[in-house]
Predict the structure.
Amino acid sequence: MEFDDALTSRVKELALECGFARVGVAPAGPVERAEAFRAWLASGFHADMTYLARNVEARFNPAKLLDGARSVICLAVSYSPGRDEPDTDAFIARYARGRDYHRVLKKRAQALCDLVRAVEASFVGRVFVDSAPVAERSLAAAAGLGWIGRNGSLIVPGLGSYVLLAEIVCNLPLRPDDSRQSGCGDCRKCMAACPTGAIISEGVIDARRCLSYQTIENRGDIPADLWPLLGLCVFGCDACQAICPHNRRAVSGDAELTGSAGEKPLTLKEILTWSESDRDRLTRGRALRRATHRMFLRNAILAAGNSGDPSLLPLLESHQADETLQPYFAWATKQILAAGRQ
């Protein structure tokens, strides 16, 4: 296939103008890691995320997502805090502290499509933002944005792993970028930092033990052996990212995504008093909406137990009548009372 270098350069310029921090191009053919992904599924490491087992072939072959696909425009935005963050007793994953990244990135990617179409009228493309079977990290790595680290996250030079990705599968003959070599070296800090040992080997995560899965995706019950390991996590866990040297050197990210645009940090006291309508109001337009009201209460009760804060006992008692939360309430109460006797 002949590539249009001038068009490739122009598309990249337009991507930066639309607010993306990095842009690269991957071919729209099969991408690597498909067999590793199938082995991961076969091991049951995807837990109850059964949607991941669907459309595996399309996930690793973007040409199946658009007739006439020739290129994938891979886009990244940083949500790195890059600054001292306010202390709070309710840990929220950094990606969820700002606006809903699905909306933010999709809006920017659609704006990019409009600009590209104005340059090349034959352009046809589809935007994907974590909403379809797309192997986004593998594509981003193929497009030279970065490499997949030992914690399974994409690490982008200068941005670290606090990045959110979007893809545009299109029909344009864009020149692919070269992939990068891993920059992790001998570092295994992320693997050692995981509270539950969920990183079982390099780049292989057992979601069943991952606190991000348990607090964000698991709508059932969290296994009791993980309760004391949950710490103050209410929505996600960034332990394997916070320790990464590449993140410690990263600059501040996009204000819409970091929470610096005005979103108020949450506290355990606030969450433990939430009604369903409170949760609906306070998570609207934010990635936090992924967790249900019961999930927030479940997670906050466990975090309260790990905090050892006796001032939270009256708030915990308000949930003891809920049979679905009673085991968490009983454990958290016991933990706080035991902490007070020490």
In short: The chain has a mean pLDDT of 94. Residues 189-240+263-341 form one domain. The first strand starts at residue 22 and ends at 27. The beta strands are 22-27, 71-78, 91-92, 125-128, 147-148, 154-155, 163-170, 199-201, 204-205, 233-235.
